[in-house]
Amino acid sequence: MLKVITLLADIMADSNHLSANVNVVICFQEYGGRVHRFLQEYGLLETAWKPKSIGKSLALPFNEQINKKDIEKALHLAFDFEIQIDCIELEKSETSNNPHARLNRVIIAWLSNRRILENERDKYLSDLPKKWQLLGDFVVLPETAFTSDSWSSLFGQIASADLLAFWQEVSHALGGVRLARQHPIAKDTHRTSQTELLLGENGWVEFLDHGIQFGFDATKVMFSSGNVTERRRIGMIDMKGEVVVDAYAGVGYYTLHMALRSKAKHIHACEINSDSISGLSWAQEANGLEDSITIHPGDNQETLPKLYGIADRCHLGLLPTSEAVWKHSIHCLKPKGGWLHIHMNVHKNNLEEWTSKTLEMLKKYAKSHGRDWQIKAAHLERVKWFSPHVWHVVLDVECKEHI
Ligand SMILES: C[S@@+](CC[C@H](N)C(=O)[O-])C[C@H]1O[C@@H](n2cnc3c(N)ncnc32)[C@H](O)[C@@H]1O
């Protein structure tokens, strides 16, 4: 049986030290190649530190940007042999060329070119971004990156051409060509992305996720890279022959996985935001899905009623809650029933209560719709921490006729 142990410990990887405590995946040597390939394929492998043999086992370092729970889940889904997540001391690779190290080097060189003395550099170096998103050649920095008082006052003293050159250095160090800084995702219905373009002409991005082509304007719509395990999980459900309704399709975050990996027969993708629809239409064509996805533009309060009685499965992917479409989704299912995947933010102490209340509501909606269904929670997936104490969960609900 797969045994996954997670020992919590902070990464203390400092690019100036020759060894450090680093997060690792530990497996038997014989599986090392498979795990190494997996980490490499998903961009999770950390190349700044050397893998280490421990008896019959091998420790492979993984990227410090990756949440330990996420990697644990992804490995759990991918492999059925024993894997352990730990934090152990590793030696630095001879040629440390990971993006963190590159960024550090580039910034040190840039500061010394500007004649900033070594003893003054710490206030800049201590404030370098530790996380970012790389969407194709487009780097999205977190909203706090390079905004400290020290950086702001330094930028105030340099010409705009020099600033552009600086952003070029940063984006190249992080593996991109264009650069933007994230503003908070708007709390409006459309989940608009508010991104400040620092370098580049536009924010149109194209990239592969699990072999699926995605495309959209990253300055206009959001893409949550953090839900990687949920995209993987949904794509592993067998949906052959099924008609699926995706009530909040966005740029196809789940729609494309259900069409290509789960092999759903047809997906009705409801989406209100025209920028997301542009991305979804692009991806539909790029992935050759013209015949298997129908896009329904507009408010799903109006589009879902046109899809009543046709679905084997409804995907309800809106946070903090998708409650506004629970009743519609019950109506969308075929008379024999089907599946619902309900996304929700729920306090960690409230998971059981929320699950049973949700089932009660769904039973009420089904009954008033004349459906005599057995409705049960098949699985509650904890996708990730949305905030301290609050889980982003997905409840898989099965609705079926009484036998
Ligand atoms: C969490 S986001 C998108 C997640 C999506 N799975 C993706 O591609 O990232 C939710 C999506 O629902 C859409 N949306 C929100 N309210 C809607 C409504 N009433 N009708 C249709 N779409 C809606 C938003 O425009 C947004 O694209």
At CATH level 3, the topology of the largest domain is Rossmann fold
Rg, rounded, reads 23 Å
What helical percentage do the residues reach?
Answer: 25-40%
How much β-strand is present in the residues? Answer: 25-35%
Give every kind of bound small molecule, once each: S-adenosylmethionine
**What is the class of the largest domain in the CATH system?**
Alpha Beta
Global mean pLDDT = 88
Overview of the structural elements:
The two termini are about 35 Å apart. The protein has helices at about 30-40, 70-80, 100-115, 120-125, 150-155, 160-175, 230-235, 255-260, 275-285, 300-305, 325-330, 350-370, and strands at about 20-30, 50-55, 55-60, 85-90, 135, 140, 180, 195-200, 205-210, 210-215, 245, 265-270, 295, 315, 335-345, 375-385, 390-400. The chain has 12 helices and 17 strands. The chain folds into 3 domains: about 20-90, 2-Layer Sandwich (Alpha-Beta Plaits), CATH 3.30.70.2580; about 100-200, no CATH class; about 225-400, Rossmann fold (3-Layer(aba) Sandwich), CATH 3.40.50.150. By secondary structure, the protein is an alpha/beta fold.
